[in-house]
Amino acid sequence: MKQISLQLLAENNLRFRMDRICARMAAEKAESLIISCNNNKFYLTGRIFDGWIAITADPRKILYFVRRQPELTGENVYRVHKPEDIPEVLAREGISLGKTIALELSETPYAMIERLSHAFSATEIVNADTILMGARAVKAPDEIELIRACAAKHDRVYRRIPHLYREGMSDIELQIEIERVTRLEGAIGIMRVTGNDMEINMGSVLVGENADTPSPYDFALGGAGASPALPVGADGTIIRRGVTVMVDTNGDFNGYMTDMTRTFIVDDTIDDEAKRAHQLSIDICRRLEKDARPGVACSDLYKTAMEMAEKAGFANKFMGHSHQAGFIGHGVGITINELPVLAPRSKSVLEENNIIAIEPKFVIEHIGAVGIENTYRVTADGLEKLTVSPEGLVSLED
């Protein structure tokens, strides 16, 4: 059997991640941390594997426990059949986890939480999700480059969308063509979302009034979806003149994502109100690109966007009409919804090398959704735009 390294990250990039995690563990008074969830295993190794990761109490050391994939090897890699085997390995190695252990309480099934807490005889359990989401909010150099590469491929897909359209197409048919091109461009075919009650396919195509259909999921806009089994996005509406086609599909080409929305039209018969709202979305992005920098409160950015919408007379159409989303942006990375969140009651403050998506969108009755969404890197001088596809209303007949 060919042996391969479990750990794919360069030492400097792993150290960056560990330093951020350990600082947050100290703040939460967690002596050790156990990782069960794929998102965080990928964050700390660059791969998905079946097993667990332990960050130990003293010294801050990372251990890998692999249940399947016997070909995976490397320093501090151990074979186990179940989590209850881990304490025996730790005892043999003379390693203590302490009594205050952080577990991923929001993402891990209750039964596994029970098994882990009993296996390690923890006297106190703290929430590792807070620690890990906070650590992941600031991207390491390798993560930024992976997101840049993703944005470039994402752009190539969006520039092909007008060539995918055929007269008489439904929104579902267009989405299938977009997904096909996205996969051929190298997308891995899954969009990871934080939250057990959050689900999504490869993105959303909203045509006309379907954009104003509320969804049970906490996305900026909803849509009825093709089935009650996944009530979000395209619902079979035929694309026609006089309505908008909002494409909000995600790019995930290497385990990291970019988020981008562009609005398409069949011809130029769109109502002037929709055109003005679309330009307002672009104007809000330009303003926040200047205002957003390290140290700025995310709630202030939301307030600025809302004030611009109110001043232009679009407050009741901002981020939806029949149902309005309570945010205008969010972090992006391994999942499509990370920290920080740009919302009115957000306590987040921007940090350098946050990766965020900003999506000021409007829903115009009888016409549909308009607006854009870009993925940005937070820099000392403002926002660096990573998604660079044309932002104006794009004709599908070009």
Write the layout of secondary structure elements.
Blueprint (H helix, E strand, L loop, with lengths): L3 E2 L5 H17 L4 E4 L2 H8 L5 E5 L6 E5 L5 E2 L3 E3 L6 H8 L6 E4 L6 H10 L4 E4 H9 L4 H19 L1 H4 L6 H14 L18 E5 L36 E9 L4 E3 L2 E4 L6 H20 L6 H14 L17 E3 L6 E5 L12 E4 L2 E4 L3 E4 L2 E6 L2 E4 L8 E2 L3
Parallel strand pairs: 1-5, 2-7, 4-6, 7-8, 12-20
Antiparallel strand pairs: 2-3, 3-4, 9-10, 10-11, 10-12, 13-14, 13-15, 15-18, 16-17, 18-19
Q: Could you explain the architecture of this structure?
A:
The chain has 398 residues and is an alpha/beta fold. Helices cover 31% and strands 21% of the residues. The chain is built from 10 helices and 20 strands. The strands form 5 sheets. Strands 6-4-3-2-7-8 form a 6-stranded mixed β-sheet. Helix 1 packs across helix 5 and helix 9 runs antiparallel to helix 10 (298-311). It starts with a strand and ends with a strand. The mean pLDDT is 94.
